[in-house]
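3.2 Worked example (two chains)
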Amino acid sequence: MIIKDKYGPEYLIEVFDPKIGMEGYLVIDNTVLGPGKGGIRMTPNVSLEEVYRLARTMTWKNSMAGIPFGGAKAGIKWPGGSDDMKKQFVQSFARAIKPFLIKKYIAGPDVNTGEREMSWFVETAGDLHAATGKPSKLCHPSGKKCGLPHELGSTGFGVAKAAAIAIEMSGMDIKKTTVAIEGFGNVGEFALRHMAKMGAKIIAVTDANGGVYDKNGLDATELLTLKEKRIPPIEHKNGAKIKPEELFSLPVDVLITAAVTDSIHAGNKDKIKAKIIVEGSNIPMRENIEKKLFEKGILIVPDFVANAGGVISSYAEYKGYDHKKMFKLVEEKIKKSVTSVLKQSLVEKRWPREVSMEIATRKVEER
């Protein structure tokens, strides 16, 4: 259901290319703080409602992160196919939404899109400023503003930092903390990489095919090697094989979501045993479900607070920063926002999303 209120959405756009069957959506939710910023996802069942929900999340995410972007999101129905067909879909979509680019919307990577797709997109748009997350070799003619690709892992890095703060504020020792990660794409991979580096025990990882679980801890290096070879985590040599859904019922300290929308739902919410949920994915559950889990005593770091690393990286690229300065900016902003939200939540015993929404909406309303 699309809700129209004082914040937006400003534009609800549906496009279709009858020559190739490309069907896509662009929702520009709110541009009070700046041009709408949000990635393009390519999935078989993406809908206007899903894109709207994601765009609204981006409004609060950008506000919460303190960067001069508004909220927007795009989606292309992608049934799968050759790289050539995928390029045609991306470029057809770029042509269709070109009138809105830069002033109202700046694209970026999302599910099934990365630096390659952003390169195709800006090529068709005819302006490097039309998207962030571009290849590092793609630079402005001045040579000073180059791409900061999604593949650097800024979102997963920020999610790991958010998790570490939540663990510390819960009075737990990260080196004695068990972690389960749902999703092993870009966000899941880098969340695992940085959590393992900080000493957390990764006990389960899944993707759409299933995964692996070992209460004594999995070998993070081997998992990352499998990822490099494009081998699913279920092929990890140690631990028990599990179905994707089984991850949610595991006895674990921290659950990191890094997969698709609404993966936590009415059918599995009561099975969750985690003490902390860090939402690395956008809208991993509906708000009523999230609130019920919080009321059960689970500390939840909301998506637009936890996974803002990607859009902070987008801002760094927009400003022409290098990757070192970008990661420093991500860490500073994630630390500031997560700490402020959780501190107030724990002191006042209030739902973290409610607290963070107050902060984010205040920034929008004061402009």
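3.2.1 Second chain
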Amino acid sequence: MTAPVDLAQYTGYLLRRAQQVHAALWQSEVGQRATSVQFGVLSMLSEHPGIDQVTLCEHLQTDRSTMAELISRLEKRDEVTRTKDETDRRRNILTLTPQGERTLRELRPQAERVNEILTAGLGENDQRELQRLLVALLESPRMQGALADE
């Protein structure tokens, strides 16, 4: 018989569990209104009006086909417009609509609530440290290389 495995020693396992908790909290607080990825898209478009779709993919670390599907759904809900760049017809320029701005304003407090609940067991310093470590992990050259291989 092999020795028992302490799954808490595996970062991937912990990240997956944290993502499961986040997904459950998002469902509880936001429901079917929007996914956390859609919230990310709306937030990024608010911060970068007129960003092109490829650059948005890079910022959100999302593949092009997934992003195209996300944008199509947001267009159908009249939250985003997609127009061809006049100088480069291959580029899609994305803009929040007034409905998209309203949706984002309504979602922001709910997303903040999810974050508050998710990190409620941590002190303020630990919350900042967790964020710092996750950003460092995701921005590490090895992780960036792994994401590029997808």
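3.3 Remarks
The chain is about 65% helix and 5% strand.
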